[in-house]
Amino acid sequence: MSAGKALGRGAEEETWWVIGHLVNMEEHLFESGLLDQAALVRDVRRGFVEEWGRSLGLDGDLLRRDWCVYKHAFALMVHLQEVGCGEAAFKAPELALKAHEVFEVVKSFVHDLVEYHRRGGGR
Predict the structure, then answer these.
(1) Residue 66 C-beta-side C-alpha neighbours within 13 Å
(2) How confident is the model over 68-97, as a mean pLDDT?
(3) Which of 18, 29, 69, 108 is positioned for an S-S bond with 34, CB 3.0–4.6 A?
(4) Could you tell me the CA-to-CA distances from 120 to 58, 106, 111, 116 in Å, in that order?
């Protein structure tokens, strides 16, 4: 993959991006002191995540238990995309390629975590 080329995504990954961007938006609003707006985005994000989990057949208790892992993975994927395809990709193409490698590892991890939760999450 060349630096600056967008990573291809399908419908499954697009839902991850929605969640990742909602997480980032919520955090930025909170950091800016816009607490009411952060709470609104949090409620939207929670509703979307619940529906996402149901659509995949994930147990709601397991999803809530491991939400923080998903949250960080999805937010990380957004930031890796920014490093791999944004301005940094042109200034440091080697770093952009490394960001793509890390992205693929995180993507694989999320797939594995979803499958783990589909199987009952170690229960």
Answers:
(1) 19
(2) 85
(3) 29
(4) 8, 21, 15, 7
Shortest CA distance to 101 belongs to which of 3, 30, 24?
Answer: 3
What the block records as the tokens of 112 is 């594995």
Rounded distance between C-alpha atoms, residue 81 and residue 71, angstroms: 16
d(CA 107, CA 15): 13
Distance CA 116, CA 122 (A): 7
Per-residue pLDDT, 122: 65
Q: What does the alpha-carbon distance between residue 70 and residue 45 come to, in Å, rounded to a whole number?
A: 13
Tokens encoding 72: 């960080």
Domain count, the chain: 1
Domain region containing 24: 11-118
Residue 4 lies in a domain: no
Give me the chain's average pLDDT, please: 86
Judged by DSSP in three states, 74 sits in: helix
Nearest to 52 by CA among 5, 16, 27, 23: 16
